[in-house]
Here is the input.
Amino acid sequence: MNIASIKTFLAVVRLGNLNRAAIELNITQSAVTARLDALDQALGARLLNRSRKGATMTKAGYAFLEQAEVIAHMWDTAKARISLPLGIRNLFSLVCDPSLWEGLGNIWLGELRAAYPDIAFEVWTARSHEAQGWLSSGVNDAALLPEPLTGSGITSRIFLEEPLTQFGTRARHSVKWDPGYVFVDYAPGSARNMPKPGPATRPQA
Here is the structure.
């Protein structure tokens, strides 16, 4: 098993097709097949169901996917740390939720670059469940997410509090539940932490 086989597996999973993966990796389809066969043999299980229509993961493939992503990321990070240019003493790896990058994430990274010119920065985009695994395994140094994480070796702090404003099509008082209510799923955690709505009521005149 080698890193090329793992990256080939990830490409096939992402693209759903051996031929498209071959084009992206700039290798032949037979080379893709050989790498996948080598990976199956090394792990002792078939990771993908392959057919002319495409490729889908087996149960073993789902079990291996997260570890494959970690291995690939750690390999890329190791290469980046080894090949740092002259004058750069370290590499800081940040994972950022896509919804936060355009505003807060981009601004924060710009401030970090200005404050630490001798450090290189890389950014990965991911949701909370992926970020948790990457932080725990040491792939990333920090994460910017819309909800806190918990786990061994992980500490969270509030970076910014942003108010939410409810809008409606008509003026009315606040009520527990109303057909005109608009729900905004700000993050997976916020939906879980919200109380269940009560029966439909309307404000008394």
Notes: The longest strand covers residues 90-96.
